[in-house]
Amino acid sequence: MYDISLKYFHAVAKTGSLSAASEELHVAVSAISRQISQLEDQLQLTLFERKPRGMSLTDQGEVLYTYSLRNAVEFSHVIAEMRGLNSLKQQTIAMACPDGMAWDFLPNIIAQFRKQYPSAIFSLQVVDSAKATQLVKEGIVDAALTFSLQPEQGVEVSLQVPSPICALMSASHPLAQIDSISMQDLNEFPIALSESGTTLSYLFDIACHLEGIQIAPAFTSNTIGAIYTYAKESDSVIALCSALSVERRAITDGLILRPMQHSSFLQRSLQLQVMSRRKQLTIVRYFLDFLTEKLAEQFI
User: 253-256, long-range: CB within 8 Å, 24+ apart, which pairs?
Assistant: First the structure.
């Protein structure tokens, strides 16, 4: 009896407003509003917080939205299975990750996996960490390999490993021979890091604040490739990044990675995220197991 109400609820939760849901569903705003109110009355719960410029989910609404997303994904899988599309050769593995994981690490893992399963098809969306998590939550991708600072409703963390921020530099850099790098050390050299809005930039700002210093980066970018090349081509630059993002390339190019001393740089973790309680297709399970093994090897 909830089919129509849940459909309208899902549209409002996704779009954030009655008018946007109306445009998407081609249904009058009043009809959608009435169905949402009836659903809340039947459940005896408040699902939305009404605001002047839209509607946001309450905690109870978040739980129901997570259910509706998972239900939609499971239904599409059932249809695919009924149509005979649920075979290893015809399954696509949809992944999302931030630029740091997309530059080298994840494509390398995918290439290794396809040696065992050459018919596997992959799609990879490169987005910021928050967007990667959202894509998992909405069932648009099967999994995300992403940096995280906090848990997210509707998302299950199947593996979490430390992802401290390190300093990348030339082997001829003046600090290349010391064991770890302090914030005061950074103050003496040109710094390269990801642009504002990333977890790395956020933790860098916190560390500067706690140390009572101001450091203006000499170079910022939204791609790790540009940051890496900038550090590679200069004997004085220190680039801040995840070791896992650049380690394989750094060894080949003779660059040095050193841990950062400040505790703020230890707060970040790398997570393999999937939709909570989602039943994964066979080839997806195989790949996630493979990826989990490769990640675990990095921290043995």
Answer: 254/171, 255/168, 255/169, 255/170, 255/171, 255/231, 256/168, 256/169, 256/170, 256/171, 256/173, 256/176
Does pLDDT of 86 surpass 60? no
Give the per-residue pLDDT at 1: 44
Looking at residues 131-138, what average pLDDT do you find? 90
Contacts of 208 (CB under 8 A, 6+ apart): 183, 214, 215
User: What pTM was computed for the model?
Assistant: 0.72
Return d(Cα 54, Cα 51) in angstroms, integer. Answer: 5
Residues 6 or more apart in contact with residue 153 via CB below 8 angstroms: 62, 63, 66, 137
* Whether pLDDT at 253 is above 80: yes
Residue 254 φ/ψ, nearest 5 degrees: 75, 25
pLDDT at 155: 87
CB 212 within 8 A of CB 220: no
The yes-or-no verdict on residue 92 having pLDDT over 90 is no
Tokens found for residue 193: 């890091």
pLDDT of residue 51: 86
Contacts of 150 (CB under 8 A, 6+ apart): none
Q: Whole-angstrom Cα distance, residue 249 to residue 42?
A: 58
Burial 120-137 (b: 16+ CB within 10 A, else e): beeebebbbbbebbbbbb
User: 259 phi and psi, to 5 degrees?
Assistant: -70, 150
Q: What does R_g of the chain's alpha carbons equal in angstroms?
A: 23
Distance between start and end Cα atoms, the chain: 52
Pull the structure tokens for residue 282.
Answer: 């066979």
CA–CA dist 159, 271 (Å, integer) = 6
C-alpha separations of 221 from 86, 130, 194, 199, 253 in Å: 41, 18, 5, 14, 21
CB 200, CB 99: distance < 8 Å: no
d(CA 73, CA 136): 11
